[in-house]
Amino acid sequence: MTNRIYYTDPSCRTFAATVTRAFDQDGRPAVTLDRTAFYPASGGQPFDTGRLGAAGVVDAMDAEGDVIHVLSAPLAAGLAVTGEIDWVRRFDHMQQHTGQHVLSAAFDRLFENGTVGFHMGADVSTIDLAREAAPSEVERAVDEANRIVWEDRPVSIRFVSPAEAASLPLRKEPAREGTLRLIDISGFDLSACGGTHVERTGAIGLIAALSTERLRGGSRLTFACGGRALRALRAYRDAVAGSVRVLSVLPRDLPVAVERVQAESKDLRKLIKDLQERLAAHEGARLVADAPQVGGVRLLVRSVDGWDAAGLKTLAAAAAGTAGACVVLMSGVPPVSLVVARSAGVPVDANVVVQQLTSRFGGRGGGKPELAQGGGLAAPVEEIAAAARALLESALA
Question: Does domain 270-396 have CATH number 3.10.310.40?
Fold first, then answer.
């Protein structure tokens, strides 16, 4: 079994070890070591990366007591190597994981709202709370958690037997049996955990709640600590500054300004739809009148500019409203949107035509025999138009 240095010394950055086994792991070179500081993915915390000698460590995983190190290049069994942890990544994980303990403990202490799930992503982390948390409760818990951060309390590691653990005020029941590794945030939280943590709460820097959502009767809280919190603040700053510049309002007026823009956009979309419907009746009749006849049917196949997908449908339907007409209208540039429509009594199945065109040129679509539409066709519009005309002429012959 691998001696796990991170259990007792999570701040270890370099270490000496011996390769105990070399093998392939899913087609990639891998080794186990007699001792390691590399943390394998577990308990919601991602794995460490770094180097073993000349090889990069690209993954680390737990396997029946051993830590498997997946490498960028093979190493031989028996080789003495120096391991080096990617400290930026490790310290980030330590900040997030310790911050999660503090934040979860704050919810538990203030509101008896336990954490039932934890996930650490690449940019943000989440905790799932047993019951729904009100916005005021989130603010109080985050304030309390940051108080503990700024008091710079010690974070210690100790190992206890199951009997000893039973007599201790653990925040939640341990998920495993046997000797337990406890993370003790002085005077605030005591939890069984195998992850890596900072030595003092001050190293967390800051705990920032970014959002909350309802989830299965509880709440999912998205948060960031330390360097991630700083990056999130910068992203929000840039977003606010850009919005303020575009909308010409003060930051505090942004919500009202965005609501106004949304309302204006909704009104404009409605106005455009009404105008397109009025224009379609006249433009459709004009286009059909100039179209050639095939088998006694006006055959209109062309691209039109200035019409979105909904507008194309409106225009095609208006054009097909003329007796004895079959219409294919397309947008001007790939990926092409198109609408196929026909008048009552014209022996063309619009849906079949769309399926044939999307099968040939890509994209997808469908509809009814009298009107169907498609999108995402990846070919020049002239080529699609020629294919559509050939299909219709064949159907009308």
Answer: yes
